[in-house]
Amino acid sequence: DLCRELMGKISFGDMAFLCLAGRMPEARETRMFEAMLVALVEHGIVPSSLAARLTFAGAPESIQSAVAAGLLGVGSRIAGTTDAAARMLEAAWGDRIRRGGVPADDEVCERADLIVRQHAERSAHVPGIGHPIHKPVDPRAVRLFEIAAETGFHGAHVRLMNAVSVEAQARMGKLLPVNVTGAIAAVCCEMGLSGMVPRGMGIMSRAVGLVGHLLEEERHPLAMQLWRQAEEESTRHVRGQLREAA
């Protein structure tokens, strides 16, 4: 009963969990789930928030269109790699974990080596690792894994995600820490929330963050300034190319 059993009695996070899992969460699930939602709300000035701000600048009467424009940018590079990472982890273990198996450390390392080699052979990016800013670690991933350990969701999927990071760094010779989407993917697998759920969580969180960006845009406009700067820079660049060609 929405009015008598839910409104005023459960959090927004618990309501989201109910929609995704079909049941109310346990206390430890609430803590873990809401921590993941919070981790993805805000990303600063990135393509998705820029798209939302620029759309709002052109159509301030339609906040839903601006939020939608921003959500279209939640993909394989920004906040949307959670589902790919989750599929990678699930495929690595198959039904081993569901049958109650607890992999030894050497088996975790073997699976991590296989994952990295397979991606290298395809010249494909390994989802869930690496970040252009957060190095040598992504503090959001570190914190989520801390909470996972405290709530009992630090199992074989989390161990494998960390092992993939270590193996990839050794093979490629550069820093590739587990990022926030990789951490969320691993924890979602531990919680039995897989399939579209990780990406869906990112969409829910970013929607909240984008509304915040649009409120800020209304009070302190930024989009028009960025548009003019982009136009000036692109014009300057084209003129420079034309001079070089002449």
Annotate the secondary structure layout.
Elements: H1 2-6, H2 12-21, H3 27-39, H4 47-58, H5 63-71, H6 82-93, H7 105-121, H8 139-151, H9 156-172, H10 180-191, H11 197-219, H12 223-245
Helix pairs in contact: 3-8, 3-10, 3-11, 4-5, 4-11, 5-11, 6-10, 7-9, 8-10, 9-10
What is the count of helical runs? 12
Apparent shape: flat
Strand content: under 5%
Query: What's the helix-strand series?
Result: HHHHHHHHHHHH
Report on the biggest sheet: none
Structural class: mainly alpha
Low-confidence stretches: none
Q: What would you report as the Rg, rounded to the nearest angstrom?
A: 21 Å
Distance between the termini: 74 Å
Mean pLDDT reading: 93
Number of strands: 0
Helicity, as a percent range: 55-70%
Please describe what this structure looks like.
The protein is mainly α. It is 67% helix and 0% strand. It has twelve helices and no strands. The protein has helices at residues 2-6, 12-21, 27-39, 47-58, 63-71, 82-93, 105-121, 139-151, 156-172, 180-191, 197-219, 223-245. α3 crosses α11 (197-219), α4 packs antiparallel against α5 (63-71) and α5 packs across α11 (197-219). The longest helix is centred in the C-terminal third of the chain and has 23 residues, at 197-219. The mean pLDDT is 93.
